[in-house]
Structures are given as structure tokens and as C-alpha cells.
């Protein structure tokens, strides 16, 4: 069955005086998928998303959401009814409670879910009467997601939903996104966290300097750009590293004394393991598959820091 | 529910739960009313003006003469002055400066000259004899015309008597007693105080020569009800704070919402810019009506104010709130930074507050400042509110209402244009 296209972007350009924030981006978003825009700060993620949310104008190209043109006034009304948004750095009225803030956003729509239903969905029942100013960062993000869902949207934009959160709060938000997938919502996620994109997304678009560098499912990207699997022998030492390098090549010694051997197929990995068995080594062994981080490193030529900067 | 109402409820709730918002929007104006009321409502024997009096008219044993003492007593009886006696042998200006008290103040001195009583008696006698001569002479001229049978002897007796009286008056010294006034040129209230002292001197003068005032000075209020000073400050304070709430509070809240992305979040929904503006204007109007009600209630409890708002007053408040909300929207739309928005709001609000006749009558200002006040929206709002709340002067209310209605529509339209709802 043909995939239903929810978002269709062709040659999208956004120019700010001397800066081209988005430079000819094209992609599609399919119904029910979790799609991630992965890139460092300033890559053009939020600009692209805000054009699709109809709060930023485009300079060139076309963008359609549910078939509606984001540049046409009447179409914009239809788009706004059908999307839910968690903006970057979401904030709400400090003195209002969780329920009142969700009601505020819900009050903007003709068709909306019951607030208590949304609160339950986001597991916020205990905080219903708590003022927004008294919530933790993670709970604030959950309120933001609740507000994004109150109009029962078909498409949900989550712009950097876990930035600045502690690991536990981040996992909580991941769980919320998993629940959205179960509800068959289409999710457009932007993030600079590699692991987040890899764990959550059905498809990932790697974006840098306003251009999409690669697009595909995590597995597709890894198999295409991720490189070799790594056999790691913890504290294997220099002598072992030299032995494996002589026999199989592609072997390094980390500064911790770990021996890292890259293997491009399973048989080579087994041969190396049998060599280790014959040496009767009492060392911890681990086989590591390539990750999206390796993909990103390969495509962009750098890593993204915790703060989202390209290094 | 309609979107503007949802915005109205949310924004109002958020404001009502903000302690600082409540303080500056409601408590601060109330405190100001209480301070103004305490200063200008008088009563309780306080508020007397210090007047230094140096009585140099002394009898041989050094005690003040009866006439000079009576004059000081007359000054005292006005209950306007707290009189401080300056010793006769002191330099009055130096003594007054040294005896102003710990809080200082203005120096106003009345010096009663030596010979005050003597000159008063002589001068009074000369005036009385002169009056008697004029009276008898007028009577004689009248008799000559009305009584034809008056013989020469009778005429001679009258004329001799008149001549003797005139001659006696000529022997009396033409004495004039004097009071000396001293004050600082920078003391703006000195003229008023001096006039009061001069009025007391005139009254004293009339009393001494036995004249009676034939002009009776009656006082009436131009309003149907008798209002106190606080009633007159009330519309000024209310209009000034409706302005600051619109200009400063709304501007800072709008900028804060914008900075934190709350407006951006709302703009992603079907909410329109106009919905947002209407919701905020309604919230400001409610705040203005609450402020007015609380000010009147507090004013009634403490100062017994009698200004009760009618329908016209409420309409004035509504249009004024819309006007200043519009102005606040313009500033909030132009300035993104909260601190800059507040600074800009202050820079506009405070000069307008003092140049619009809100606290000080326009009449005391130089003519060029009066011209400036005529282009300030607050002038028309506070005048209109005063006419509606105090004078019940309908024509004046409608004229000012027309001006602020035009301004309100213009400000709201400009505010709607400059409020950015879509990013570039």
C-alpha cells in the first residue's frame, strides 16, 4: 500500500540577508512515522519546522502539509487546525496551573480532546493543579506535549523536546514519544542528540548548514555510512593489539589500554575470537555495532556536543 | 468559548495571581491616594504654616502694646499659622533661620514696627474725624437744599462748626503704621501667605476704625454635591494608573510573553492577532474597573469620598483602557526586550502624568507646557473622567470622549499592525 504523504517539502530555501539558513531542502513525511531532523545548532532544523508550522515565511521552494500550501492564508488555517506543536524552549503562563495552561491552548480549537484525557495520557494527573512555575524542566516539557496534543492533531512537531533535561526527564519524554507512535500520530522530531534520533525515529534526516546530508532509516544510514563493527577487548594491552593488527589489520589501542579491532564481516570476527580463545586470555570482550554517531561523523566530519554545537 | 475570552481569562488569572502585578496595578495607586488624601484633606489641627512674628511695638516696661498684641491675636485666630514669636532684640532673619526646627522649612516673617499702636490710634482718629467732617458737610449741603427756611445765623453756626472740625483734623498727624514682610524669593507659597496676612491687616484696620464690610463673601460649590479635596484627586490618580497599567504593565507583559515564546506558541494555533489584542484589552478594562472600584471604596472608607461612578464614567474608563492598551501594544510590538519596553513605557508615561493636569492644574504651568499638554492623550482622558465623575458635565465628557475614542481606534489599529504574529 502506498504511503500517505503528510508533509512534502521541495527545494525549500530560507534566506536571512547574508545567511542562507535553509538551502534547498527536500523531503517527505509519511503518515504514522516518527521522523527526526538531526543536526547541530544553526543547521536549519527549527527554521524548517517553523515554516511548516506557518509561523515563518519561506524564501524559495515549496512546502505542503496535508496537501495545504504553507504560503496561502486559507490553507494556513487548515494546517493550524491539524498540527500540534511543542516549540523549542516551550514556556507557558507561570501563574496558571497545568490544567489551565492546557485549557488555554485547547480553547483556541473548535475540535479538541477533553483536557483530563490529555492530562492522563501524559501522566500529569498529580500535577493538574500545580502552577507551571513550580514544575521541573521535564514536567514542563510534558505539559508542552500535552498542549501539543490537546487538539488531537494528526501531525505533531516536537522541536528539541529534550534539550536541557536531565537523563531521567529525557527518558520520560522518550516514553511520551513512544506512546505517540502507539497512537499512530505522525511525529516530526528535531534533535541534536544522536541516541535520541536512533532510538526514536523511523527515519532520520541528517541536516547541516541548511542542507540535508543524508536521509533514511537508522539501519539504512548505519549500513550505508556507519562502517565496520568493532571487537573490543577491555584492557587487552599493547602486545595483543600488535598480534591482532598483524593477523587481521584494522586494530588500534585506546588510551585506556582497550584493543579495538574493526571487522567488516562476521567470519573475520569469529576468527579473531578463536585467536583470543587460543591465547587463553581472561579479558572482557564486547562487540560494538556502528551507531548514528558514526554515521554523523562520517557524513558531517564532526561530533555534536551536549550543547548542540558541532565539534 | 470564543478565543478572545479564553485569552482574557488566562491573562487576567495570570495577572491576579502575580503579587508584583497586583501591587503595582492596584496597591500602589491606593497608597498614593491615601498619601494624597492625607496631605490635602487637612483637618486635625495639623498642616499649619509657621509664621515668625517680631513685635517691636513695646511699652516702656518692655511688654507688647495692646494694639500689637491684638493684631497678633487676630493672625492667630485664622488658625492658618503656627506663630513663633521672635524676640524684639534679635535679628529676625537670623533668629528665624536658627529656629526653623529639625526638618527646616520656609522662612516667612512679619515685623510689627515700633509705634504701631501710637500710629494706629493717631491714624484712626484722623480717619474718624475726616469721616465725621465729610458726614456733617454732606448733611449741611442736604439741609441747604431741602430746608428753605434756614436763616443766616443757623448757616453760620454750621459753617463755623465744620471749619473747626476741618481745622482740628489738620492738626492731627497723618500717621500710617506699617508691617514688614520678609520671605525667600524662591518660596512659591509665600505670596499666598502674604495675602492672608494682608487680609488680616485689612480686617483689623476696618475693625479699629469701626467700619463694617458691606460686601458679604459667600462660598458655593460648582458641583451639586459638596466634595472634598480627595474627590478631586481621585479621577487624576485613576486615569494616571489606567495609563501606566496600559503603557508599562501591558508592554512589559507582552514583551515577556514574546521573549519566552508564549506568543509564538499561541500563534501556531488558530488564534488570530485580533483575538489576542481583544483578549488583552478586555483584561486591561477589567483591571481598570477593579482599580476604580477599589480606589472609590478605599477613598470612601478613609476619606468619605462621594464620587460615585455612573454609566458615562464606566464608558470613559473602557475607552481610556482601550486607548492605553493600544499604546501599550504599539510599544510591546516595537520593542522585544522587556527592560527596554518598561524603560520606554516609563519614559512616555511619567512626563505625560505630570504634563496632563493629572496632579497639578494646567493653569499653573507655563503656556508652552500647556500647549504640549493639549496633545497628550492623558489630558483628554483625565479631563473627561473628572467631568464624568465629579462635575457631571455631560458636554465636557462627550468632547473628551470623542477625542480619546479616535485615539483609541488609531492606537489599536497601529498596535495590530506592529504586533508581530509571524516571524520573518
Structure notes:
The complex is a heterodimer of chains A (311) and B (424). By secondary structure, chain A is of the alpha/beta class. Chain A has 11 helices and 14 strands. Chain A folds into 2 domains: 5-224, P-loop containing nucleotide triphosphate hydrolases (Rossmann fold); 228-289, Alpha-Beta Plaits (2-Layer Sandwich). The longest helix of chain A has 16 residues, at 167-182. Chain A is globular. The two termini of chain A are 42 Å apart. Chain B is mainly α. Chain B has 3 domains: 3-41 and 228-418, no CATH class; 49-115 and 177-209, Rossmann fold (3-Layer(aba) Sandwich); 131-171. Chain B is built from 15 helices and 4 strands. Chain B has helices at residues 3-16, 19-40, 66-77, 92-98, 116-146, 152-171, 190-209, 229-259, 262-267, 273-303, 311-334, 338-355, 367-373, 377-391, 394-418, and strands at 49-55, 81-86, 108-112, 179-183. Chain B is elongated and about 115 Å long. The chains are: A alpha/beta (311), B mainly alpha (424). The A-B interface holds A 16, 50, 53-57, 77, 80-81, 83, 85, 87-96, 100, 103-105, 107-110, 131, 147, 151 and B 1, 3, 6-7, 10-11, 13-15, 17-18, 260-262, 264-271, 422-424.
Amino acid at each position: 500500500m502506498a504511503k500517505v504523504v503528510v508533509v512534502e517539502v521541495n527545494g525549500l530555501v530560507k534566506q536571512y540577508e547574508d545567511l542562507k539558513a535553509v538551502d534547498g531542502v527536500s523531503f517527505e513525511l509519511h503518515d504514522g512515522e516518527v521522523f527526526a531532523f538531526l543536526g547541530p545548532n544553526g543547521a536549519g532544523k527549527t527554521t524548517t519546522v517553523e515554516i511548516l508550522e506557518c509561523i515563518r515565511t519561506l524564501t524559495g521552494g515549496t512546502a505542503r502539509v496535508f496537501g495545504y500550501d504553507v504560503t496561502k492564508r486559507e490553507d494556513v488555517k487548515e494546517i493550524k487546525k491539524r498540527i500540534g506543536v511543542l516549540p523549542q524552549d516551550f514556556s507557558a503562563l507561570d501563574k496558571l496551573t497545568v490544567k489551565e495552561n492546557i485549557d488555554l491552548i485547547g480553547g483556541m480549537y473548535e475540535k479538541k480532546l477533553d483536557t483530563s484525557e490529555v492530562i492522563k495520557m501524559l501522566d500529569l494527573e498529580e500535577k493538574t493543579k500545580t502552577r507551571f512555575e513550580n514544575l521541573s524542566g521535564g514536567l514542563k516539557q510534558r505539559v508542552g506535549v500535552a498542549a501539543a496534543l490537546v487538539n488531537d492533531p494528526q501531525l505533531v512537531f516536537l522541536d528539541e523536546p529534550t534539550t536541557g533535561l536531565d537523563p531521567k526527564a529525557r527518558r520520560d519524554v522518550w516514553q511520551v514519544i513512544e506512546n505517540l507512535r502507539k497512537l499512530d500520530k505522525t511525529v516530526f522530531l528535531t534533535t541534536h542528540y544522536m541516541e535520541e534520533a536512533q532510538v526514536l525515529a523511523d527515519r532520520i534526516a541528517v541536516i547541516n548548514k541548511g542542507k540535508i546530508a543524508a536521509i533514511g532509516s537508522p539501519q539504512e544510514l548505519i549500513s550505508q555510512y556507519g562502517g565496520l563493527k568493532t571487537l573490543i577487548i577491555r584492557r587487552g594491552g599493547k602486545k595483543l593489539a600488535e598480534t591482532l593488527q598483524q593477523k587481521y589489520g584494522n586494530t588500534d589501542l585506546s588510551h585506556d589500554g582497550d584493543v579495538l579491532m574493526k571487522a567488516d564481516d562476521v567470519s573475520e570476527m569469529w576468527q579473531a575470537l578463536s585467536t583470543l580463545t587460543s591465547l587463553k586470555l581472561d579479558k572482557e570482550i564486547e562487540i560494538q555495532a556502528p551507531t548514528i554517531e558514526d554515521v554523523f561523523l562520517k557524513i558531517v566530519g564532526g561530533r555534536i556536543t551536549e550543547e548542540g554545537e558541532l565539534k | 468559548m470564543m478565543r478572545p475570552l479564553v485569552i482574557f481569562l488566562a491573562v487576567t488569572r495570570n495577572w491576579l495571581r502575580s503579587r508584583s502585578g497586583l501591587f503595582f496595578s492596584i496597591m500602589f495607586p491606593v497608597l498614593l491616594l491615601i498619601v494624597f488624601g492625607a496631605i490635602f484633606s487637612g483637618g486635625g489641627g495639623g498642616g499649619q504654616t509657621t509664621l515668625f512674628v517680631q513685635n517691636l511695638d513695646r511699652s516702656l516696661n518692655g511688654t507688647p502694646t495692646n494694639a500689637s498684641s491684638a493684631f497678633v491675636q487676630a493672625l492667630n485666630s485664622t488658625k492658618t499659622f503656627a506663630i513663633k514669636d521672635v524676640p524684639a532684640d534679635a535679628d529676625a532673619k537670623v533668629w528665624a533661620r536658627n529656629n526653623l526646627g529639625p526638618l527646616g522649612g520656609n522662612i516667612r516673617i512679619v515685623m510689627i514696627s515700633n509705634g504701631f499702636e501710637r500710629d494706629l490710634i493717631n491714624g484712626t482718629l484722623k480717619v474718624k474725624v475726616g469721616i465725621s467732617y465729610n458726614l456733617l458737610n454732606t448733611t449741611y449741603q442736604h439741609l441747604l437744599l431741602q430746608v428753605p427756611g434756614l436763616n443766616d445765623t443757623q448757616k453760620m453756626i454750621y459753617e463755623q462748626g465744620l471749619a473747626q472740625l476741618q481745622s482740628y483734623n489738620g492738626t492731627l498727624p497723618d500717621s500710617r503704621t506699617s508691617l514688614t514682610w520678609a520671605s525667600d524669593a524662591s518660596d512659591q507659597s509665600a505670596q499666598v501667605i502674604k495675602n492672608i496676612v494682608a487680609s488680616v491687616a485689612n480686617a483689623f484696620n476696618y475693625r479699629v476704625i469701626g467700619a463694617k464690610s458691606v460686601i458679604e463673601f459667600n462660598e458655593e460649590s460648582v458641583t451639586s454635591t459638596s466634595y472634598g479635596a480627595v474627590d478631586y484627586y481621585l479621577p487624576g490618580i485613576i486615569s494616571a494608573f489606567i495609563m501606566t497599567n496600559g503603557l508599562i504593565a501591558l508592554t512589559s507583559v507582552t514583551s515577556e510573553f514574546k521573549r519566552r515564546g508564549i506568543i509564538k506558541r499561541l500563534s501556531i494555533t488558530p488564534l488570530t492577532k485580533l483575538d489576542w489584542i481583544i483578549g488583552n484589552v478586555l483584561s486591561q478594562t477589567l483591571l481598570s474597573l477593579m482599580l476604580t472600584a477599589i480606589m472609590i471604596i478605599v477613598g470612601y472608607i478613609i476619606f468619605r469620598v462621594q464620587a460615585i461612578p455612573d454609566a458615562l464614567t464606566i464608558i470613559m474608563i473602557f475607552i481610556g483602557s482601550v486607548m492605553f492598551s493600544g499604546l501599550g501594544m504599539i510599544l510591546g510590538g516595537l520593542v522585544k526586550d522587556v527592560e527596554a519596553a518598561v524603560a520606554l513605557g516609563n519614559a512616555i508615561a511619567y512626563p505625560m502624568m505630570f504634563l496632563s493636569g493629572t496632579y497639578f492644574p494646567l493653569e499653573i504651568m507655563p503656556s508652552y507646557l500647556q500647549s504640549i499638554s493639549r496633545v497628550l492623550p492623558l489630558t483628554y482622558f483625565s479631563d473627561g473622567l473628572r467631568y464624568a465623575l465629579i462635575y457631571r458635565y455631560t458636554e465636557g465628557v462627550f468632547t473628551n470622549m470623542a477625542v480619546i475614542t479616535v485615539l483609541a481606534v488609531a492606537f489599536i489599529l497601529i498596535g495590530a499592525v506592529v504586533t508581530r504574529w509571524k516571524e520573518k
